[in-house]
What does this fold into?
Amino acid sequence: MNRITITQLDHVADIEQSLTFYGQALGLEQLDRPDFDFPGAWFRLGETQELHLIGHRSHDVQSHHRGTHFAVRVDDIDAVESRLNSHSVNQIRKHRPDGAHQIFITDPDGHWIEFCSGP
It folds into this structure.
């Protein structure tokens, strides 16, 4: 199955659930991480960026698709939708007035993530 190709990045976590979600459902490449004294995981985003997940969160997540979220630009929004469907990830797809396409999902901790392409 193809990976989602993220071209740019336009912290988290129940680490075990997040490893499965980001590594398997989204197909992101997991990176080596220094031996910190707290749990976490690192994943590659695009060619030069990384997503760092940090465990032992002490506050509730406050996230919404029109508020606090992070967005990643992708090269093929239909491939993203297909991959998410194949892993039964709930999603909201939107089309902006400027022609851009967006898909919103939540990770296991409730963080909203936007995949966007175009215009």
Notes: The chain has one domain: 6-57+67-117.
